[in-house]
Amino acid sequence: MAAKLARFSWLPGGLAAALVIAVGRFVAPDSAHTLETGLYDRVVRARSKPPATEVVIVAIDNESIERLGAWPWPRHVHANLLERLTEAGADVVAFVEPIDPPQGNAEVERIRAALALLEASDLRDSPQAEQLRSLLGASNNAQQRPARLRRAVETHGKVVLPVSLQPSAVTIEAPNTLAEFTASAAIANRLTSASTYRVIQEPPSELLQHAGGVGHTYAYSDDDGTVRADLAFARVGSTAMPSLALAIAARASNVDLSTAVLGKDAALRFDGHTVLLDRELRARPQYYRAAGEKAFPQYPYWQVLSGQIGTEHLRGKIALIGAIDPAALPIPTMRTPANMSSPPVVLIASAASSYLNGPVYATPGFATIAEWIAAAAAIAFAAFLLPAAGVALGALATVLVIAVLVVTEVGLLNSTQAWARLMLPSVATAAGFGLYVVGELIRRANVANAKRDGKEAAANLRSLGQTFQRQGQLDLAFETYRRCPLDQATMELLYSLGMDFERRRQSQKAAAVYNYIATRDPHFRDIRARRARLKEESVVPPAPVTRAPAPKPMPTPAVEDHEPSFLAETIPSGLHRTLGRYEIIRELGKGAMGTVYLGRDPKINRVVAIKAISLADEFEEQDLGEARARFFREAEMAGRLNHPAIVTVYDAGEDQGLAYIAMEYLRGQLLSHFADPARL
């Protein structure tokens, strides 16, 4: 089990990393987006580059409302402001709040209704009615007097007006009055699969005739409600409506968006720099705070109108007119990477500043390639490097890899404004390490259990092998020892077994035992010398079999008179063979039921007769077990007999595939001696 776990140690970490990449890329990309935007927001917030100095905000604040009256203000108020900005030399003027909100028309109708009611009443000829008629008429004239504002817009020449959009499930074409302010058809064709929007409020037509540009004020936010991108071009019907920030930047750079063409990489080129857009033609500008350090200069509306703001603060500037306080006007506020609550005018000013002077963050082609390379590297690291490094070194390597990925992402954002999303590979690396550690702990627990069980099993196997060795079953003992771990204790037992094989003159088996020990320790005890000696003996040709001398005074027939045993074929004469613990001296005779040998018990120096039977040759394999049991059972029964005419049985056993019985040896003559014709 432990070996199998070690073989598949690459699987947990690699599988975890691959699963994180797959989920973050395909199954639940929003979860990965949250990780990436968290780091992105911190980088944008920490960036030290100040906003463009040419962008200022003319703020509609509480004090301006108190001094100029409730919103919406009459058109002549905006005309006065625009004339003042023209005199001060403002380069571009952009209105963020609608100049003619819908409630303005309702106000005109209410004034007209009041005048009609006055004329129909009985008080129409009173002095008070004359005064009331004068006041209502003046208010009505102010509400219906667009000529001055139109002339102011025409005189300045670079006034950018806002258009209000909202998402639409159906395609609704933009009004014809806005056609000249939309982008080129080449840009619109890139938005065929983008979300659609419809116009819900447009500037007055008399102002559009002299406007320098038109842009939408729709604030595109991510799923978490944070605005991180400016919708540079919105799909309105079959046209592409530029954002107000882009229209301001184009007007300031003298770029005609109606004829502009994007490159293959969705690059929009301004004077001296290029802005990269994403597939939905969105730009990711640098957002700034609404107030405080690194914020845009803000001048109250009423102070600019009254001339308290000097021309040195307005000359050559891009002036954005909009509300900054929700308490003054019911405006929406948005969360950005730089601020928890930003009014629309600050969002548009930030985007316009980035379009003009940068930075604009994007994901170019090389960043996308880097993301996939990092994902593949994270999987390879978790699958292959972690198992090779181990837990301790792997933890250090994991921290290093995550640090490299994070530093690379931050460095690219700061240096080239390229956003390569590397947080997902970082999380995949951490997840791979975590699951690898879990798998490693499980593997180590199994190894510990296996070692404990192995020690117990090895002890049992060594005891069993020693039992076989004492019984003379050396081959079985060798096979049992081979199942034990080849440690010091096992090598000691194997060394003893090799010596037993040597005593039995089984050189090849002894050499096999010593060779097995040498696989672990070739210098164990004196096995080097023993192996060399056994190797020399194996090349010496066996000595010829000679006739054994007949015992005296009673001569016995020579060994040649009988069929030699199979042992005599492999063991040289003059060397005692063994069967069990008995030394074989010579063969006495052979019959249908086996061979009888003359042997000696070396422990008590007793001469015995040994009857040996090869059970494997006499019985089939399926009957071998029963035959062996019957042989020893009959030997046991014979050993219980005690009679002068029956030889005494001393021992029984099995060795080298032979079942044997050691019994009393009686000297005598062969039957052929008495059957000699000369003696009959």
Topology:
Blueprint: H1 2-7, H2 10-27, H3 29-46, E1 55-60, H4 62-68, H5 75-88, E2 92-95, H6 102-120, H7 127-143, H8 147-156, E3 159-167, H9 185-188, E4 196-201, H10 205-208, E5 213-216, E6 233-236, E7 239-242, H11 244-253, E8 267-270, E9 273-276, E10 284-285, E11 298-300, H12 301-306, E12 318-323, H13 344-357, E13 360-361, H14 365-415, H15 423-470, H16 474-482, H17 488-503, H18 507-518, H19 527-539, E14 577-579, E15 582-591, E16 594-601, E17 606-613, H20 615-618, H21 624-639, E18 649-655, E19 658-664, H22 671-674
Parallel strand pairs: 1-11, 1-12, 2-3, 2-12, 3-5, 4-6
Antiparallel strand pairs: 3-4, 6-7, 8-9, 10-13, 14-15, 15-16, 16-17, 17-19, 18-19
Helix pairs in contact: 2-3, 2-14, 2-15, 5-8, 6-7, 11-13, 14-15, 15-16, 16-17, 17-18, 18-19
Continuous helix count? 22
Overall structural class, as computed from helix and strand content, comes to: alpha/beta
Q: How large a portion of the residues is in β-strands, by DSSP E?
A: 5-15%
How many extended strands? 19
Provide mean pLDDT, rounded.
Answer: 84
Q: What's the story with the biggest beta sheet?
A: 9 strands, mixed
Provide the helix percentage.
40-55%
Which shape, going by the Cα principal axes? rod-shaped
Low-confidence stretches: 1-5, 542-575
What separation lies between the terminal Cα atoms? 79 Å
The gyration radius over C-alpha positions equals: 53 Å
Provide the number of structural domains.
4
